Amino acid sequence: MAEERRVLTGTHFMNGDVACAEGAIAAGCKFFAGYPITPATEIAERMARRLVEVGGIYVQMEDELASMAAIIGASWAGAKSMTATSGPGFSLMQENIGLAVITETPCIVVDIMRGAPSTGQPTEGAQQDVMQSKWGSHGDYEIIALAPASVQEMFDLTIECFNMSETYRVPTFLLADGFTAHLWERVIIPPPEQIKTVERKKPTVPPDEYMPFKPDDDLVPPMASFGEGYHVHVTGLTHDERGYPKTVDPKTQHELVQRLCEKIRKNADKIIRTHEFVLEDAEVAVIAYGIPSRASLSAVKMARESGIKAGLLRLITVWPFPEKQVEELSNRVKGIVVPEMNYGQIVREVERAAKETPVHFLAKLGGEPHKPSEIVEVIRRAAKA
Amino acid sequence: MTVAQQFDRHPLAKYLREERLPHIWCEGCGNGIILSSFVSALDDLSIDMNKLVVVSGIGCIGRVAGYIKCDSFHTTHGRPIALATGIKLANPKLTITVISGDGDLFAIGGNHFIHAARRNVDMTVICSNNFNYGMTGGQFGPTTPLGSYTTTTPYGNIEHPFNLVHLAAAAGAVYVARWTVLHVKRLTESINKALQKKGFKFIEVVSPCPEIFGRRNKLGEAVDIMERYRRIAEITHGYDPSKAEITDERVILGEFVDIKKPTYEELLKKQFIKVQKLTGG
């Protein structure tokens, strides 16, 4: 029965938060720890109702520090685990996101972005945590972040987050704006056999030969779960391949941090997903992610109708940033337009990759998404320049 | 086998990651005694080391997780109980022990302690209470006695300390005990009992820090501190924990709470069965 309830195959009308929860369960998530927060609460509510049906655990923790800690613990006990939050909770999670990075713990953090700083605009969507998702915890590291732009993608990309997190042993973020999370749209949930799920690599050697943090060629070490007899020691301190603290050895620190970054950077081509729309002959490229990419699509069509050759590059993977794709695109367009629901975050990465090509930024603050006409105006400016 | 060969290896060494020794703790520190009491209890119970998980936080005693030969997690500061909650709920077959310090468990991690006790998550929490932050060089913490000198109370501590056994009892722990590292046998028996009991169990271990806390407060050598424990300790089981605050003149030891209450895991299991019936499973 539990297995039958795991994937609700069929056509549904649901909101983005609920679709995210269904994606998680379809991906095999068996543990959710969270703390209520707008506009992510519906994910927790759906998980509380649904996880128990599939033999999973929903636990409401005392805060987001604890939620993040609990999903790390659950992951080491062998469960695919997830939490969901918004800006203020995401800030609290940064501490243990760092722990998940250094201990290479597969786990999913859903951040439904709302207006910030601080308590900000709880009920309005935004994209203000994009840089925080990359740099929020202290130290050097790489993570993976995916940005859905529809309710269907809230489902699909949550599954993708689990698959990537299990593959690379890295905390992976579903970075959704509050609008996409609260949209109601049609979602098609395929039959279970059509949903690709990935499980973490397990050790192939006996416990006495197992080095818990010794990577394979892909820079990712196989992961034993607690209770399997491998006697793994896991620490937030800088550690050697055995997992033991080695905090004053420059070589150990260098190699560990380098590998934590390189296992993502070297696999970037496999991780990065983008979506292109009429870019082949474009003179102006719009680069967008999340809800602004929907207005951008209309804007590109409107611009084309008025004779401007515009196109859209939609970022599905935000981190690692699709640097090569943007650089390549910048070499063949006159200008780039970046609409974001913040005061300038991903645009910095675009500028870095685009080098000499002019980049026109269109900030949107206040809790209302961009209007296509506003984007068209900037496309026009970019076409004239 | 000769006697020498027989004692070549400590009988409890099999429970330790011997390659990690010697440990980092100062001479006279009580943490080694807590570790040896813990592994003695494991030995008495013939615990399956493949199903034991030790979780610790940050601080001197935080290193303990790395010395025990089982699955172990040395977490971020204050978070061992929250992380242990995730481990236990995701795999209820595991036996979870959190071993950490007074600052880790009751200052930065205080919220996690009270909520795990309230939920009655099945784990044993052992607190090495040395009355200060030793790892960072001796600052005052949530159990530092009023008037004590530390590097951040150079004129004497003006904060009232927690009475940990009262806090644990009020938060809902099903087993609450306090010992000192002088009372090794009773401490070991207490750990043994806690490991067999279901629910949230708490053991406070009063532990000397002669190098750092002791020196600034003129408590003498480790042996003087142990002698003081002998002098002021009073063992009274069932004592009212609200009246058991530690003073210069008296430290009440014993079992303060030993009750039965459904654990989080038991209630979860019941709910799972209920939902299976509802969904026709």
Major β-sheet profile of chain B: 8 strands, mixed
| CATH topology name of the largest domain in chain A | Rossmann fold
CATH class of the largest domain in chain A: Alpha Beta
Strand order of the largest sheet of chain B: 2-1-3-4-6-5-8-7
Count of individual domains of chain A:
2
Beta-strand percentage of chain A? 15-25%
Gyration radius of chain B, rounded: 19 Å
**Quaternary:** heterodimer
Number of helices of chain B: 10
Sequence stretches where pLDDT stays below 50 over 5 or more residues of chain B: none
CATH superfamily of the largest domain in chain A: Thiamin diphosphate (ThDP)-binding fold, Pyr/PP domains
- What level of helicity do the residues of chain A show? 25-40%
Radius of gyration of chain A: 21 Å
Architecture per CATH nomenclature, i.e. the level-2 architecture of chain B: 3-Layer(aba) Sandwich
Largest interface: A-B, 48 and 43 residues
CA distance, first residue to last residue of chain B: 60 Å
**How many β strands of chain B by DSSP?**
8
Secondary-structure element string of chain B:
HHEEHEHHEHEHEHHEEH
Report how far the terminal alpha carbons of chain A are from each other. 62 Å
What is the H level of CATH, i.e. the homologous superfamily of chain B? Thiamin diphosphate (ThDP)-binding fold, Pyr/PP domains
How would you portray this structure in words?
The complex is a heterodimer of chains A (about 375) and B (about 280). With about 375 residues, chain A is of the alpha/beta class. Chain A has two domains: about 10-195, Rossmann fold; about 275-385, Rossmann fold (3-Layer(aba) Sandwich). Chain A is built from 13 helices and 16 strands. Chain A has helices at about 15-25, 40-50, 65-75, 85-100, 130-135, 150-170, 180, 250-265, 270, 290-305, 325-330, 345-355, 370-385, and strands at about 10-15, 30-35, 55-60, 80-85, 105-115, 120-125, 145, 170-175, 185-190, 235, 275, 285-290, 310-315, 315-320, 335-340, 360-365. In chain A, the strands form three sheets. In chain A, strands 2, 3, 4, 5, 6, 7, 8 and 14 form an eight-stranded mixed β-sheet that branches. In chain A, strands 11-13-12-15-16 form a five-stranded mixed β-sheet, with helices on both faces. A two-stranded antiparallel sheet of chain A has the order 1-9. The longest helix of chain A is centred in the middle third of the chain and has 18 residues, at about 150-170. The mean pLDDT of chain A is about 95. Chain B has a single domain (about 15-280), classed as Thiamin diphosphate (ThDP)-binding fold, Pyr/PP domains (Rossmann fold, 3-Layer(aba) Sandwich), CATH 3.40.50.970. In chain B, helix 2 crosses helix 7 (about 185-195) and helix 4 crosses helix 5. By secondary structure, chain B is of the alpha/beta class. An eight-stranded mixed β-sheet of chain B has the order 2-1-3-4-6-5-8-7, with helices on both faces. Classes of the chains: A alpha/beta (about 375), B alpha/beta (about 280). Chains A and B meet through strand 2, helix 3, helix 4 and strand 10 of A and strand 2, helix 3, helix 5 and helix 10 of B. Strand 10 of chain A pairs parallel with strand 2 of chain B.
